[in-house]
Amino acid sequence: MVLSLWAPMASERLTSQQRARKPAWLKVPFPGEPRYLRLKAMLRASGLHTVCEEARCPNIGECFQAGTATFMILGDVCSRACRFCAVKSGWPVSLDSEEPLRVAEVVQRLGLRHAVITSVTRDDLPDGGVAVFANVVQHIRHLSPSTSVEVLVPDFQGSQQALVTLVAARPDILNHNLETVHRLYPRVRPNAMYERSLELLAKAKTLDPTIPTKSGLMVGLGETREELLQAVADLAAVGCDILTVGQYLQPTPKQLPVARYYRPPEFRELAEESQRLGFRHVEAGPLVRSSYHAERQIQNISGLVVRQPLE
What we know:
The protein is globular. The chain has 311 residues and is an alpha/beta fold. The chain has a single domain, classed as Aldolase class I (TIM Barrel), CATH 3.20.20.70. The termini are far apart. The longest helix has 14 residues, at 130-143. Strand 6 (148-152), helix 7 (160-168) and strand 7 (173-175) form a beta-alpha-beta unit. It contains twelve helices and ten strands. Helix 7 (160-168) packs across helix 9. The strands form two sheets. An eight-stranded mixed sheet has the order 1-2-5-6-7-8-9-10, sandwiched between helices. A two-stranded parallel ribbon has the order 3-4.
């Protein structure tokens, strides 16, 4: 299918005034529902962090109200400084040995159907923090055996041993985001490597083909149509099962500006084109983020029966 609805991208740049006026399809209600407030209070009382809050996700109200959250482990300070991300960067804090158990306890108290575990990047740690990921999965399995667990991991600087440890923990989904197209990596992800991210997903499939792999892309950073389709094809080529594509939104003035807002029909056509490449599930839309509707994705690809969250 030819993506005929796509407008030219390479030369299109928004002014600061145009960026401030977000299209109607990007506007979300201000969060404040009772369940949102309850979950936020529970996280603070447990000393836990979520990427929903740290990265200023626009879906935080919807997800918190539904009783779902993406837990961010290994502290809240990242050793890298990707230019799209609002998470604090600098010298990371020491590890909290009780964090894995606290995450599992909150998952149990919420009765989550599906738990997503991500982290800041910890290049300062010899194993990149992978042992903590494995520990969190183990604790959740013990306290909430019917909860499916998705891990959204950094690249561990390409460590084969870290990936072996992660796969041995047997998460239900192994997620690593490609984020953007090859050409934009030096500008958007200066301390990451496009090929390294693809290699991580490929090696995970080699180590255990039964674990579904997942990756995500942002659009609106200045990529061309051809570059975006090549990134999608590259993910399909390494056997990636689930793809998420969403609109990049500048979280603060410190991050990269938005180059272009994609329209909903463009996301629909991109989803159709991606599915033709063999992905088992594609989630594409203006407000889609890596963990958005994550519990629905695992149900779609595996038929896994998971319990409803507690009220």
